[in-house]
Design goal:
Chain lengths: ~350, ~350
DNA sequence: GTTAGCACTCGCACATAAAGGGTGCTAACA
DNA sequence: TGTTAGCACCCTTTATGTGCGAGTGCTAAC
């Protein structure tokens, strides 16, 4: 059987109606509300064909049709026009996005918030992957007799530090040597490389510095590196599911929250997704718990480095055109923001430790 | 009418039963399951009295009795025995608490998690209030030509820093002077005092340092102070409400999530609560949205300073004795942990800026 | 003061009925 | 041959009625 022009139009109408109302849509509804110039009976015949072809399903013998996943896939791939956001919409989004933002991780969190607010779905965002970020500068700053602060600065500009308690007082000079040594050894290495390096053997020269390092600084150093590598997952708009008819069932709501409560899982799954605008519909998601959901994600990045993700999760019946536009607009904005703040100075200052 | 011994016993039995089952409890149930040696009819008479006195209510003309808020209040104040945790329970809690903990804020977060897990309620925790924390040490560390890191260490041991972009290269010497100046001016001040001080006038001596400060460092300094003052709110076990019969209604669940979603509100309200073990029952909570909930909070602290809170929110029908025991045990543990890690060295190192 | 007995009240679960929206088929039509 | 009107039929939803069970309140007896 052929997917004629008319069948496509009818399919599209059914999808549009179902997305809006969440109710199975009947032939009369289509004929009334969409000006296709054909009668309900004809539409019924076409619907019957579409069902046979796998694009529609019947919840029950009577009652209207519901688009299948195959239909959504077709819609997303072929039928869906790109929805351009109006200038005023863009303004609103941008304004919300940059409200109260002063750090980049903050911006990511904010993006998830805005996204959930605009789409009325559950949104999430991954902070930039740090696998590609490199160490730039390490310092040990004495605070008092037995406390030093270990400071690590990465090329992306992230600063991280840990207070380290020493087992005995240490000369400033020793700290200086150690810091210089560490900067020399590690700058230019990615965080994960640094994490794997056999650190000890790089400190043969100065026995005291080496002992200091091994006993006091190393644990904090490793922990801080791990911490810097961590990709944060932000979620927002979880409660939006309560306004989705599909989740008016308490059991469904519960399982939804349970799935999304396992943040570590979610993070792994998001990280594993391909880059670019990716839409997975219903069963296309490996996870059985998500087999009634669609997930839309897109990546933001700065010249191929530092890639993070942004997306939503919602019922398969979602406004794919609108969602993709908003997600795209947001990732564009984030990428831009990273360009401005993050990418500037890549000259290193490894010799300026004082 | 008098609250006779027998009436109290009956009331206690009703509360115990209702807390366990969430079902209105009838006279037969009491006579069957609690050995009071009196017949259902007698119990009915007593119940009738208790209702008149305001301790019980009738959901409907038939069907058993439900404890009123007044009853819970009486129970909490007078009837409830202190439930001692067994050693093995304590072990389990302590073990869960210290799993994966390496920072103090982390411990607070963990405590909320454990608390929700043990009580099957929604738990929250406030990180230590920082109003009493004082600045100890400030430094400016050159990273490269135009980047310095502003580092602030507080007496409680919290380290915070911001990367600051300079409008022009600055001598290390200038940074050193400025950092020394700042440390001299601010150390010993509480964070909020420092935030309010007229900063500029303290830098008359050195024109260059002053200009540097005004143009580059000040914004980051203020922002970082604000950041350090922030009291974090952690919540855990939100989905536990799905296992509470009272919230089997989707509308109730929704409004619960909506109330707890307004984190800023929650935070303010928790901060505003008195110190010590505080139990507010139903309507005693000002907030209308919480009029069907009870809130239990307790404070942890280190010699009167650095006070934070820990607690749960759940249906008025909760195991007050168990909840208070667990909360108390956890706050004790947190206080202890702060003592070990936080309270040690209070000697300042203001002159060790390098 | 306590208890047994009994009529009465609700709420709940279940069955039954009616309504409404939709289909599928057939036959007529252009 | 594609389109349409008509109609029987299907299934869900909603309303209605009924019986049951748990529980009360009252009265009278102990």
């Amino acid at each position: 059987m052929d997917l004629t022009e008319r069948k496509l139009k009818i399919l599209q109408a059914i999808i549009a109606d179902f997305v809006r109302t969440a109710e199975p849509v009947g032939s009369r509804t289509i004929s009334r509300n969409y000006e296709l110039g054909i009668s309900p009976a004809t539409i019924r015949n076409e619907m019957s064909d579409l069902e046979e072809m796998g694009y529609l399903t019947h919840p029950h013998t009577s009652s209207g049709r519901v688009p299948s996943e195959k239909a959504y896939r077709l819609y997303v791939n072929e039928l869906m026009g790109k929805k351009e956001l109006s200038e005023s919409e863009k303004m609103v989004i941008a304004q919300k996005l940059y409200q109260n933002v002063n750090e980049l991780d903050n911006l990511i969190e904010r993006a998830a918030h805005v996204l959930s607010e605009i789409t009325n779905l559950t949104a999430f965002a991954l902070s930039p992957g740090k696998e590609l970020d490199k160490l730039r500068y390490i310092n040990l700053i004495p605070v008092d007799e037995r406390t030093v602060v270990l400071m690590i600065v990465s090329e992306s500009g992230k600063v991280s530090n840990t207070a380290v308690q020493l087992d005995r007082p240490v000369e400033d000079e020793t700290l200086r040597i150690l810091a210089k040594n560490m900067t020399y050894n590690y700058s230019g290495k990615t965080l994960s490389e640094a994490l794997k390096m056999d650190i000890i053997k790089n400190f043969r020269e100065d026995a005291e510095a080496m002992a200091m390092f091994r006993n006091n600084v190393m644990p904090g150093f490793l922990r801080t590196l791990e911490d810097m590598l961590n990709v944060n997952l932000y979620m927002d708009g979880l409660t939006n599911i309560f306004s989705i008819p599909e989740y008016n069932d308490i059991e469904k709501a519960k399982s939804f929250f349970e799935v999304l409560g396992r943040k570590e899982d979610i993070r792994q799954k998001l990280i594993a997704r391909d880059d670019g605008m990716i839409i997975t519909i219903g069963g296309e998601n490996q996870d059985a718990d998500l087999s009634e959901c669609s997930v839309v994600t897109a990546t933001y990045h700065v010249d191929g480095k530092l890639v993070g993700k942004l997306g939503v999760i919602g019922p398969t019946r979602m406004k794919y055109d609108e969602v993709t536009s908003v997600v795209e607009y947001l990732t564009d904005n984030i990428s831009k923001a990273f360009m401005i703040t993050g990418g500037e100075d890549t000259d290193d200052g490894k010799d300026r430790g004082d």
